Amino acid sequence: MNTSPTSVTLHLTNTTAQDVLRVARHDIQVDISAEVSEKLAEVRTHIDALAASETPVYGISTGFGALATRHIAPADRAKLQRSLIRSHAAGMGTPVEREVVRALMFLRAKTLASGRTGVRPVVLETMVALLNAGITPVVREYGSLGCSGDLAPLSHCALVLMGEGEATDKHGVNRPVPELLAEAGITPLELAEKEGLALVNGTDGMLGMLLMALADLDDLADIADVSAAMSVEAQFGTDQVFRPELHEPLRPHPGQALSAANMFGALQGSQVVASHREGDGRVQDAYSLRCSPQVTGAVRDTITHARMVATRELAAAIDNPVVLPSGEVSSNGNFHGAPVAYVLDFLAIAVADLGSIAERRTDRMLDPARSRDLPAFLADDPGVDSGMMIAQYTQAGLVAENKRLAVPASVDSIPSSAMQEDHVSLGWHAARKLRTAVDNLRRVLTIELVVASRALDLRKPLTPAPITGAVHEVIRSKVAGPGEDRFLSAELEAAYELLADGTVISALHHAQGK
Fold it and tell me: What is the pLDDT, as a whole number, of residue 1?
């Protein structure tokens, strides 16, 4: 029975990471609770009062950024909001992925629903209607500095709310925005005081990408444990270094203990491991085999730290100025993306290292001097056939790129807005490179799984463990076993899809009894 929710309801609090993933990746519908609509209407009365006042208030009756000193007359304020969105929608480059835009929009809707931004209920309702209709604004790769929020990406979304800009329908087809809105029964917004700024002043893009990366890395850490176990098994390594008494009691890092337990469990019942338990002259396996739990475990602990930051950010209501419970509207600096940017960069380092150790395990399986009697490059007829030689080249290239992507973005800063915004986080850039690094890691682990599966086939008639064997069977559903050289790229891409679509992780968790 399918018990997945059919919608996500926006409340004043308690939006979860899972809610974001459901909306961004699975097009779950969004509802607005009655308490949210009532709260927005109540808070809006404070904004209307300030707008009618003779006293200038930033974001309501003034210009923006370095132009904040200019008082804007009431007759020009609707134009001010339109001008803000049009001028800030200045992104360039390739459109970012649909799921990123949907996450960004939902997270901004979550903040609008908090009652801290001062928008009218109709602004939130229009944003939610856009999500539910599957209309996706076209957001360009470049434009955000990760400070004052993800200004350009959010402005491209706000422009579509106004009936302008670029957008695609639910099928991904780029169509005129007025046509898309009319088809969905959505009336374009005329923004009132404060609303333009409220739509663009948040860390929603970088946070959305962080939440999706964390979900992906949870799965890839589990896959890395089983791919490492398959490499240990295929290379006649020992499972004894993964025993629990060698981990948590001696070095109490939670991630290490979990990865060691995963690897130890994955190798139980292996005829391959049992075949050399007696009379094996090797004292220790190489670091890339023996230290796999220490590396993947450190990645897990990095994920845990990043998730703590993401959870805190998800609970935030980021805008500038912000409406306090007293009704006071106050400027602040909460839009600065440093907390999120730092962990995005930290994860990129961990991802690069996890791919690096996986590539080293793969290379050992291909080298007859180190692979314990496996044929060179696992070729059918080494010399005539090259086997998996160039698959490792591809893997090495991916690892090299991830090392470059591990260079942090958040240590950089370029002043903007006539030096008013003189220190920025570049968190959007950290998020964009992390997305690439995570996908590269998925490809690195794909290659290790394909190579290890072939190596295990070459150990027949010895059979792998039930858990490693289950993953081996999934790989074999799309990739043939050992034989003469054949077109390898298509097989690697087919195996990659098994990781990308969740087939491998589902089979692994089923075999583990999860």
Answer: 44
